[in-house]
């Protein structure tokens, strides 16, 4: 019986490697060891030595065109100055590459973008003239997660000198080697304890301590404002954001995903899921990598509870791409895999992406256009979790739980041994919760200058009223504001209840009108609807409307209340009803406030959302 059980276990284990070449199976079944390459290896889980076909992409360290990553044993990543010194040398060899600055960081560094095209384009106009699709790849939004920089440098080298220039015949590459340039230079071998390399890693946030991948909607960071302007100017057809993940241990080395079919770009999702993913996963697998969907465990200490399917909001790159109908891929390489393996996996994915996008340019552009002009009559603002119909045969790593003498809690000990978890439940935020009808337009009074400027940075089209105009509009009356107890990403966020009312009002000259029947109309809705989690209201741009600035003294309220009761029998009856509430009746301030709120002296703009809707 023991042998029967053993045979069954072996069969299940081997089944998890059906998509991997035989030599890779042997590698993955090797005895896991504690690595000794990086300073933090001793405190990380065991690793399996990796060798894949993609290693053939590497040049010898003594080659003239080896990147700094290749020259230094595949363990390091170059500094900002070293990166662009090497790229400048490469650019000087060809007409296919040009370098432009997207703008300067708070510390004064240029955020450089390399334009790779067969025509040698160096402006948005010249790039667009040939009608080819453009792929925008950014590395280092979290600058310690820098795999994309070294992979992109190798790929650019091979486009110019390695016989791969045909990749640019049907597609352009826009490559930002380092997005968070200031964070990149806050470099140390101690920055990311959970990550295997490179030796020195940048910092997660900007020099202003802002997390750029929480900043797409509010666009507070100067770096993000530069990137959004670049997206509007260069109009890429695919956006790739390269990260390194954390969390649990598993077999996948390159995971990637995008927003879901329930979102605002269903046609783009269909292209990504049905046309893009199969080709990319096939390319990665053939080169000895193990691709997979994004991995987020529901409970990092109990894998059997399942995995989370993520429908991101517009503060994140992939959620923002969904809102503005720019197909956006979030790559999350596995932090516990060696740096060499992660860089090579990223290279394979980027190369395959240029092939797929070039071959399917018409289909991709058609999907984007379909999403941009869909104009759904209802827009979902929030989502609820639900278990998905399809489970996940998860290529995980075995683990055991141990009682920690340090913390006193149970702690996970990953064994390094591959394990297949069959049909794990998948929970995703895919059920619509709060939704709104699509307004034809929004009106923003001219005094809300910061809000108007942020919407301009996003590229949202707007016009202005040239004279005061009387209009029938809708306005939200807000109540029960709940402010976050601590600042989040530099802002005091707020959530509130919202009730829509019809009003007739005069909008002043200079009021901004935003029509929602425009390519970025859905993004405007998510930024301006107060119950949207990434609305500018919830990010704190409108917090002054929750401040009471006019008051009335008690000695004035008393005679005013007496006169109001005398003049209005209906009000007298309402007050008598209110007094039946014992808590209200026992609170003198609440009683006086009751009259003040019903008097003509009360601030009629208090907690009124100043952005008005037109049906």
UniProtKB/TrEMBL annotation:
PANTHER family: PEPTIDASE M14 CARBOXYPEPTIDASE A DOMAIN-CONTAINING PROTEIN, PROTEASE FAMILY M14 CARBOXYPEPTIDASE A,B. PROSITE patterns: PEPTIDASE_M14. Belongs to the peptidase M14 family. Gene3D superfamilies: Zn peptidases. Its cofactor is Zn(2+). SUPFAM superfamilies: Zn-dependent exopeptidases. Keywords: Carboxypeptidase, Hydrolase, Protease, Signal. Residues 76-361 form the Peptidase M14 domain. The active site is at residue 332. One of its GO terms (molecular function) is zinc ion binding. One of its GO terms (biological process) is proteolysis. Pfam families: Peptidase_M14 (PF00246). Residues 1-21 form the signal peptide. The keyword DNA damage does not apply. InterPro entries: Peptidase_M14. One of its GO terms (cellular component) is extracellular space. This is Zinc carboxypeptidase family protein.
